[in-house]
Structure formats: structure tokens, C-alpha cells
Design goal:
Belongs to the short-chain dehydrogenases/reductases (SDR) family. Keywords: Oxidoreductase. InterPro entries: NAD(P)-bd_dom_sf, SDR, SDR_fam. The chain is of the alpha/beta class. The protein has 2 domains: about 210 residues, Rossmann fold (3-Layer(aba) Sandwich), CATH 3.40.50; about 35 residues, no CATH class. Helices cover about 45% and strands about 15% of the residues. The protein is built from 8 helices and 7 strands. It has a 7-stranded parallel β-sheet with strand order 3-2-1-4-5-6-7, sandwiched between helices. Strand 4, helix 4 and strand 5 form a beta-alpha-beta unit. Helix 1 packs across helix 8, helix 3 runs parallel beside helix 4 and helix 4 runs parallel beside helix 5.
């Protein structure tokens, strides 16, 4: 299938590794020009070199930290200077530290709200006018399956990410007439360094081995295994495509059927 995004300009947040990088690679392979961003210049440069060597879409990078109060200015300036505008925005952020509700403090809530919610919204608002003017845009926000089924020991994530669901759904209704789609993509257990960290924390908390933790989790996934980054990224690329122009305001799961809700 031709996704119709050759030559489209995409910004992918938190894309030095993991899900963000996977999405950036998938978009570039469809011919999109991709701006990666994150906190590891060395890794981002290596990622761009690998993407550009494939000869499809062009990749560039910027150093940008979502916890930095200048993040939105840094990102919007880079988009203008490097691409002259934007067609696709992939809002991806790192996850907060594991913990229970009793571990949540006002300071932690404020810190993670700024990097996971507030700056995603303000960056989107800053980039929307150009999308409206050109009559085409894709806004895809990566959240977590905890939005629909809270995950044990991830109280901060379970609390903050649902805010993005309400925002994304509201925004979708406001911008649909401009040819802009807005969707939330919910990963389940996808093999990344973040998942390694969470499984390691679960093993330490429960006294089980890492192998036992993973076997228990995979047994509860109907597909019977963890997902691959490439599978998740392919879903993201489709939601950013021209053929997906009638999908907006949706929560899309990529979790192997793990969530038990309808």
C-alpha cells in the first residue's frame, strides 16, 4: 500500500531510541522527511546516518529535552529552519518512574505533567496554524495501554496519560474540517529498553526472576508474546498516512489483545 506521505515533513519526539526511533524509521521508509529529537546527540546522529543510508526519506535531528522550559521554542524553530513547515507531528514522551499512588508527590506530578502533557499540548498548538493553512496534517500521540486499563505500579503514568486522551479527542473535533487527523496510539508490552527497565523493577519488587516476570506477562497476552517495535511503528505510520484520512479522534491499541476492556 502506498501511504501517500512521500515528501511529507514529520517531527518525532523522543526518537533517539525505542518506539520514537521505530516510528521515525517507518515514516522515512515511506519517503517522509523526518526530524528526530531527543537528548543524545551522538545517538540521534547515528540514527540519521542509518536512515539516510537507506535512500528513502531524509532524516535530520535536533537536541531537545521535553523537561526544558525552552523545548517548544527549540522544536518549532528547528522545524521552521530545517523543513520550512510540518505535516506530521508524532508526540512521544518518556514514561515516568514506577511507583504506587502513595509514591506520588506534588513535585513529581508537576514535573511529569510538564514533560508528558503540557509541552505536548503547547507544541501542538504552536505547529497547528501551518497545518490548518495547508489543509492537511497528522497529529499522532503515543500514550500507554494504561489509559484504558491501569497498569500496576505505574500510578503516575496511569494518572497523567489519560489527560492526553481527553485532549486528543477534543482537538480532533476542532481541527477535522482542516484536513487534520488527531489520534492516540496505545502500546502494550513492546520490546524496548523502557520495557526492560519496567520488567526489571517488577522483578526486584516481587522477588521473581526477570524470566518469570516475562513469562507471566506473556501468558496474559492473547498473542502470547511481547510486541516488536517494527509492528508498533507500522501501525503509527499508517495512522499518519493519506489512506488513514477518515480515522480521527480514536484510541488505537497495539497490545496483542492484552487489554480486557471492549
Amino acid at each position: 500500500m502506498d501511504l501517500g506521505i512521500k515528501g511529507k515533513r514529520a517531527l518525532v519526539l523522543a526518537s533517539s531510541r525505542g518506539l520514537g526511533l521505530g516510528i521515525g524509521v517507518a515514516l522515512a521508509r515511506e519517503g517522509a522527511d523526518v526530524l528526530l529529537c531527543g537528548r543524545s546527540g551522538e545517538q540521534l546522529e547515528a540514527n540519521c546516518k542509518a536512515i539516510n543510508s537507506e535512500g528513502h526519506g531524509r532524516a535530520d535531528w535536533i537536541w531537545a529535552d521535553l523537561s526544558d522550559e525552552r523545548f517548544v521554542e527549540t522544536a518549532t524553530t528547528a522545524v521552521k529552519n530545517k523543513f520550512g513547515g510540518l505535516d506530521i507531528l508524532v508526540n512521544n514522551t518518556g514514561g515516568p518512574t514506577p511507583g504506587t499512588t502513595e509514591d506520588m508527590t506534588a513535585e513529581k506530578l508537576e514535573t511529569y505533567f510538564l514533560s508528558m502533557v503540557a509541552r505536548v499540548i503547547t507544541l501542538t498548538n504552536a505547529l497547528l496554524p501551518d497545518m490548518k493553512a495547508q489543509g492537511w496534517g497528522r497529529i499522532l500521540t503515543v500514550a500507554s495501554s494504561g489509559v484504558i486499563e491501569p497498569i500496576a505500579n505505574l500510578a503516575l503514568s496511569n494518572t497523567l496519560r489519560p489527560a492526553l486522551a481527553g485532549w486528543s479527542k477534543t482537538l480532533a473535533s476542532e481541527v477535522a474540517s482542516f484536513g487534520i487527523t488527531t489520534n492516540l496510539l496505545l502500546p502494550g508490552s513492546i520490546l524496548t529498553a523502557r520495557l526492560d527497565d519496567l520488567d526489571g523493577a517488577a522483578a526486584k519488587r516481587t522477588g521473581k526472576s526477570l524470566e518469570e516476570i516475562r513469562a507471566d506477562k506473556e501468558a496474559r497476552i492473547p498473542v502470547g508474546r511481547y510486541g516488536r517495535v517494527e509492528e508498533f511503528a507500522a501501525t503509527a505510520a499508517f495512522l499518519c498516512s493519506q489512506p488513514a484520512s477518515y480515522i480521527t479522534g480514536s484510541l488505537i491499541r497495539c497490545d496483542g489483545g492484552a487489554a480486557r476492556s471492549v
